[in-house]
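Q: Fold this one first, please.
A: Sequence and structure below.
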Amino acid sequence: MPPYAIEVDGLTKRFGDFTAVDNISFRVRRGEIFGFLGPNGAGKSTTIRMLCGLMESSAGRATVGGFDIKTQTFKIKQSIGYMSQKFSLYEDLTVEENIRFYGGIYGLAPARIAERMRWVVEMAGLAGRERSLTGELSGGWKQRLALGCAVIHEPPIVFLDEPTSGVDPVSRRNFWELINQLSGHGVTVLVTTHYLDEAEYCNNIMLINAGRIVASGGPKELKERHITSAMLEVQTADPVAAMDALKGEPWVRDLTLFGIHLHAGVDEAVDGSRRIREALASRGMAVDRIEHITPSLEDVFIHLLSEHRDGG
């Protein structure tokens, strides 16, 4: 059996003069969680739709589970699970009616549907709610039910397109526990997200912007490769003014606002802390706290997007 569940080579999608996906290539190993990250409009959903056989590519080639996306779309659809960005279940059906419906779509026998229904209900935490209308469920329950329906036929490859969009942080974390369980059973998961903290759960990540691959690798590898400076978190009364004050300093390598804090990349943490305090003090700004922190994937992504915009 080939080691790769998904292989993509030069995949491109054009809509008239607009190129949504621009000559991308990557491979996903069997059983891994592969994170496809980028801002809205980066080309993530378009790529997934091409790989799932829902949209024709303009150029390039790709295989999913060994099947060609141009000539074997029917076999691909039979062998994958797909959870779309938009909630896809029927809200006027009950929980068990949705499960039966999707089991039927995937061609499962009635006895097998009954068996898998028990698994979906348990996995989604919906015991006792089988006859509840799906539209009455909370966002987290709907999300887990949608995942259960997407994998009711036990596919070896699952595509999840922005699966945690619009749900609370606790539900997001619980959902990722389910993804890890699938991966632990050998299922290959390709997930798109714009939540950078979720990327920490992935074995490998690909960052995409404006249809082009910006970087790829494991979370730790990306941080070590692209953030070579010491990262300091600076807390001041006015982080925007502090950012403006530090922008022109030649010893500042990266500078980004993170909520109410400022992240500054410098060559060396102790010397950088001293320079920041002195630079802000000279402008009448007090520093409440400076802490040497481990760079986050958000730091990496912002750094790479800045380089991408500048043509670096």
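Q: Good. Now the second chain.
A: Here it is, same layout.
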Amino acid sequence: MPIVGFFVRQMDSIPVYRREDDGEDVSRNRETFERSHALLKRGGAIAICPEGKSHSEPALQPLKSGAARIALGAASAGEAHLDMSVVPAGLYYPAKTSFRSGALLYFGEPIAVAPIALDERGEPPREAVRELSARVAESLRALTLNADRHEALAVVARAERIFSSEEDGEGEAGWSLEQELRRRRRFVEGYAFHREHSARRLEVLEARILRYEEELQQAGIEDPRHLSTSEVSRYGPASTLIARVLVFALAAPLALAGALLHYPAYTLAGLLATKLSQSYEDVLSTFKIIAAMLLFPLTWLAAASAVYAYAGSPLAALAALLFAPVAGYAALRTREEFDRSVAGTRAVLFFVRERRFFKQLLDERRAIRREILELGYEAERAGALK
């Protein structure tokens, strides 16, 4: 793959030959280990996804042995042993298929890799590989969100959104992905405990949360954080509304130009990603990124070429080449801010027209939060929370 392959090689990527990939010669993995050792010995670092596959399962999958074998082999080969360590890193995506949604890369404590005696082939003993893999897996579980079923994660996500929207007070102040991950991990532990010891109470709470979300949707509010008095204060004043209308009016020409210019590439990238990913959610965003990295620059070049053909001026073509990505970014940010303003305005209108219902929903959210807290205290007293 000439274009993708060029960038992959420039990043010092090392090929791996897997049995499950048709036509691969797994004996060439000896080259993989040799290149890995050479890179580490010259002071480099290697990033490895030790599960060996992309997936959307609710829990960490069993680790492959390659990461531990590379680390142990590099630390133990040769006369001068390397000061080697494995740094576990967990990934957390609240919405992995949504464009510009959050992502958290969470690092754990480094795991020291002590030199050991290698066999005649230069391979570390299987026991040592299993032990290091187990230590890495334990660290990764502490850095990621794990549940025994998808349903648990769905319930936990709903409960956490309600809990955090009330705790943060009002809006997004104080919210972070790290706090969200830690909270959801504790919720998963509490969910597992109560599913075993008080399943009926858990079912009642889940039904209550679903009913609350349905009432929010009826009110036109998608995010529980928008149901707050601070949201009303932020978007309610007439001066704020006028200022936002003026900003959107000023940004509209540039944003509209960017939207029209990038719409074909944006649509084609989505279609290609959907087709190539074959509806596998775990790789959909990967194909979107790859398609966009190819189609958007081609769009900018096409725009510059069209301007040059029409005007015959290299400076005009250069200006178009610089203008295109700026206009695309303006379209993106204008759309995001417009969506936020619409959500805030809906909250204000809901507050004005249905003030009693607004207060009832706030009271219900606080009651749900109290029930979640009580369930958490019970699980904590039982020693179910870490």
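Q: Anything worth noting on the second one?
A: The radius of gyration is 26 Å.
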